[in-house]
Amino acid sequence: MREGALEATESKKWSRIEVDLRDPACKRVVAKNEATMYALRPAGSEVWYLSAYDFFMDWSFELVRYPCTRSMLWEEEQEPHKFHAELTAAGMQKLKQRQEGST
Question: What is the mean predicted confidence (pLDDT) over 82-86?
Fold first, then answer.
């Protein structure tokens, strides 16, 4: 294998691109760079003293699931464990505006 191809392969394995499908009205591409996420881990937490190997063996990164439609909001009331976050008053207002057709 050529050296340039190896370097490109090694650099690609540290970042991942996903499509954010949480909100059907607003799909977007999300790039996750694990090296950056490791560098930005909170200093005052249990993960600060983990090596990169231990950190990636025990932790994963995922997008937070939140209610983004009225039906999902109703679903949150019925089964709150399905979502990682709740909407704030501002989030409720944005959801209401989206349903009414204004941005």
Answer: 84
